[in-house]
Amino acid sequence: MTRRAIVAGTAALGLLAAAVAVVVRGPVGYPELGLPDPGVVTRVLVPLLRTVVDLAAAGTIGGLLVALVVATPAAGTGAFGDTGRRALGVARWTAWTGAGAAALSVPATLADSTGGRLPSGPDLVTVMLARGEPVSWLLAAVLGVVTAVAAGEVRRWSGGAGVLAVAVAALLVPVATGHAADGVGHDLALPATAAHVVAAAVWTGTLGVLALVGGDARARWRAARIGTAAGVVTIASGTLAAVVAVTGPGGPAAGLDWTVLVLLTAALGVVAGGALWRRRTGRAAWPVELAVLAVVTGLSAVATRAVPPVQAPGAATTPTAVLGYGLAAAPTPEVLATSWRPELAALTPAVLLAALYAGGLRRLAREGARWPLGRSAAWFAGCALLVVATSSGLGRYGPAVLSVHIAGHMLVATAVPLLWVLGAPVVLARRTLPEAPPGGPEGPAEWLEHLLAAPTLRWASHPVVALALVVGSPALLYLTPVFALTQPLGWLQPLMTLWLLLVGVLFLGPLVAGPPDGPGLPHLARLTFLLASMPVHALVGLALLAADHPVSRTPVLPADGGSGQIFVDDFFVRLRLPWAPDLLADQHLAGVLTWLLGDLPLLAAVLAVLVAWSRRTRTEHADVLLGLGSR
């Protein structure tokens, strides 16, 4: 049997497992959700389509990773080799397949929530917006088409990395409207589920694509290493998401159907891990490993239609249903300092970046080289501050109190990027990452250079563009209805945090540390851009102080039309917190914090540029005097 036949057979096995599981379990879960049974055809079709989407996404992500990392181009060429081009072809084909299945999932999920009959006219839009899931599938289909087209056109490493980011986004969009986004602990379950889904796709996809396109011993070794890391993340994140999901008042018995499916997939995951270990040690067992992973994918798709214990009736009060956790006390300084709750979307990269930096320092120490202590202190302080801003009481109370939200966001947007820039991570990476031998396969050092040279990154880090982003982001968020409209969408909050962090790094990096590959702008121009960014925080702060109504209010038109009357809804009032502060007074405090916490780090950045300018001037004068004295 050919490798292509084996891969196709494992995919068919995953689809068969999903169909059998649906038929065996019957119309379980619909009564708990208050939905009519849509019929066996719809009940089977929805998880089947999701299985196709997930397997196709694994093929797309795996194909891109094989081209970028596993069968990487030879150093100095930047172009993909034969294996990489074949892997990109697989990625393109699977992306089209996944986009088609996602598009078909739109009417399938609509029928699933309406008793098997598709709504029409205005009811169609109402149901789509109310359920959310069909909208997510529509967006996933669009991103899948973009991925498929781009995968067919990409020729360089940096372009492939961008396509990979779009493919991951397409995979994660439906997760935002799944079980992990609701119920007690969804602030932990959602990022854990996202990591689980991506890691499982990496594990399955790299194995399946490499089996299709082939590869030398080095490619198989790299694929096994990637599979091992992805397997560890898959198991760890899946365990965390499952633990959160069984925290309902009735325990696992409250969602027995879901619990059985999860335990079965966990057992199969252990079998797949054993096969992965055999593959890593050189004893080929990849067909068994791939078949088990395909079955797990099918059963996981079925589990998305079950009701986890945490969503059982009565499992959550209003605050815990909206935020994922309770807030019993008012946010006093003592409470903010002691009420810690991990924000995985920020905590994970903070820990990883600190560990990578420490690894670079260790390598320098082994070589006997020195590294400025101030740079190390700045980097680790930035990582620690990111954790404090997102996982301490600032992060826990931020979604419920505007002033706390502003404080955390301003630290993430300005203070953390400044500390990271002062840490000079690119300089450290260039000194410590081993370079590929001439003609050998590219490694991390070359990948870093490709990333730094990517046109998109160069465009976004241009001072004019970065200034527009750093000025426009807070103004758009707090001076328009965007804040009120997005605040109820809990999954958007970590994305906003990461966006502000990225924009801050793109803006302050070239101005404070300079571009990684040249002298960059004159110091006077750097000061001009820094000073030009400072008024935005003052303007936003003054606008919050001058507003006569809370910015968390938004007009809402009732579903029945309300005879044309538009009601005003407030997110913070909806939380029904017994200690809720006066919204306008808290908003005024938020305005002051915007001004102070936004501009103080920028003032520190101005001082850093002035110090660097002064040192460079003294060095130039010393060089001139030395030249005159040598005559």
TrEMBL record:
InterPro entries: Caa3_assmbl_CtaG-rel
Record membrane topology: Multi-pass membrane protein
Keywords assigned by UniProt, alphabetized: Cell membrane, Membrane, Transmembrane, Transmembrane helix
Top-level lineage group: Bacteria
Transmembrane stretches, start-end: 55-81, 93-115, 135-154, 161-181, 193-214, 226-246, 258-277, 284-303, 344-365, 377-394, 406-428, 464-485, 491-512, 524-547, 592-613
Pfam families, alphabetized: Caa3_CtaG
Record's keyword annotation contains Repeat: no
Intracellular or extracellular location(s): Cell membrane
Name the record gives this protein: Cytochrome c oxidase assembly protein
Species of provenance: Actinomycetospora lemnae
